[in-house]
Amino acid sequence: MKKQKLLRQSVKLFFKNWGAYVTLVIVLNLIISAILVPLMEYSTSLILQYNGVPYISYTNVGWLLTTKPVAVLELLALLVILFAMVFWQFAFLVSGIDNISRHHNQTFWQIAGHAVSQMAHLRFGSFLFFTIYFILVLPFSNVYLSSPLLSKVAIPTFILETVTKNAWLEILLAAVAILVLYIGIRLTLVLPLMILKRQRGFEAAGNSWAMTRHRTWGYMWRLMMLGVISLASTTLLSVGLYFLQMNLDHQSSGIAFTGAVINMGLLVIWQRLIASFSLVVFMLMLILAIRDDNVAQIKTPAKLPSNELYPQS
């Protein structure tokens, strides 16, 4: 790969085939939102109803464990299925984006099958690491790696309410968030290494940790720039549409209403496009960082290739 800045190279790749990238992301999100999420919600309600569990809260955890162990096991099994589907989603995205960037022209279903095959190579230890990785890291990275499935795994509201009532707990939570953000950046290459290089979870973690050594700020800066681009463009469009609507409101009610509908539609479409842009460019940065075939041979930081594998920014 040429010695171009990683973010700039990723943005260029996105605009070379932006239609295919956006279609991939939007179609996948539609499938998840319209099929998988309702199935998970229905399965959860069915388990609760069949086992006679009225609700789940910290107030009835003891009761659940002592009187409804079958329900607890079924819910845990459903959680495992959820994480398996989350892995499939990101395996699908990484495989699909890599495929488009290489112009392999695989079909949607070929990419889906490849993502499923990645799960077949996932050992229990790797899946355990992957689960911990998603629980700890991705909630702090949902701007770039948002998922309708992952959003179902959230910190309970009562915990957040307890934390916000205690200043010391707030400080502790902030410190933990900073630590997790640092760990997340150091492990940011784990997913593409597992999916594209078929490395085990802990092996991928070690390689990612080595590959991002002394480059933490570089990755942080790229993420910040990507966030600024997305936020600034959305804000400018929102302000422009707002002033346009103010002018339309001085016209007839029919024109004002039609303008409001069109403006809202444009804003929603733009939000979908910019979300796809952020996700794809983020993934492309990771894919380009590991594209050199020698990355699989990394054992220690001393053996890392120089700038060619990791463009500086």
Automatic annotation (TrEMBL):
Q: Which Pfam families match?
A: GPDPase_memb
Print the keywords alphabetically.
Membrane, Transmembrane, Transmembrane helix
Domain Glycerophosphoryl diester phosphodiesterase membrane: residue ranges: 7-292
Answer whether the UniProt record assigns the keyword Transmembrane helix to this protein. Answer: yes
Q: What are the transmembrane regions?
A: 21-40, 70-94, 127-147, 167-191, 223-244, 264-290
Answer yes or no on keyword Transmembrane helix.
yes
Against InterPro entries, the record matches this protein to: GlyceroP-diester-Pdiesterase_M
Source taxon at top rank:
Bacteria
What is the name attached to this protein's record?
A: Glycerophosphodiester phosphodiesterase family protein
Species of origin:
Lentilactobacillus parafarraginis DSM 18390 = JCM 14109
